[in-house]
Amino acid sequence: AFKALQPDIKVIAPWRDSAFLEKFAGGRNSLLEYASQQGIPVTSTKSKPWSMDENLAHCSYEAGILEDPN
Fold first, then answer.
1. In whole angstroms, what is the distance from residue 67 CA to residue 10 CA?
2. pLDDT single digits (tens) 22-55
3. 3-class DSSP state of 29
């Protein structure tokens, strides 16, 4: 849908980038460690790893424990 409104928009999709995937192979924990090392404030922690992502349409909650209840 966004391409119809802005055909030349550049989409940045880190989870499709092999260099990003290699650097953060540990997933969310690797990202949290990186944020800590770089002094980047985040609300997630290793003991509470979920995140809330907002956009114009809705708000979603994500984390391994929420996505895989088994």
1. 28
2. 999 988 889 899 999 999 998 888 887 777 778 7
3. helix
Q: Measured in Å, how far apart are the chain's first and last C-alpha atoms?
A: 34
**In the structure encoding, which two tokens stand for residue 1, read together?**
């849908």
Rounded distance between C-alpha atoms, residue 44 and residue 66, angstroms: 13
Residue from 37, 15, 12, 13 nearest 24 by CA: 15
SS3 3: helix
pLDDT tens, residue by residue, 1-24? 778 888 898 888 888 899 999 999
* DSSP codes, 32-69: HHHHHHHT---S--SSS--EEEE-SS-EEEE-HHHH--
Token pair, residue 27, equals 């997933």
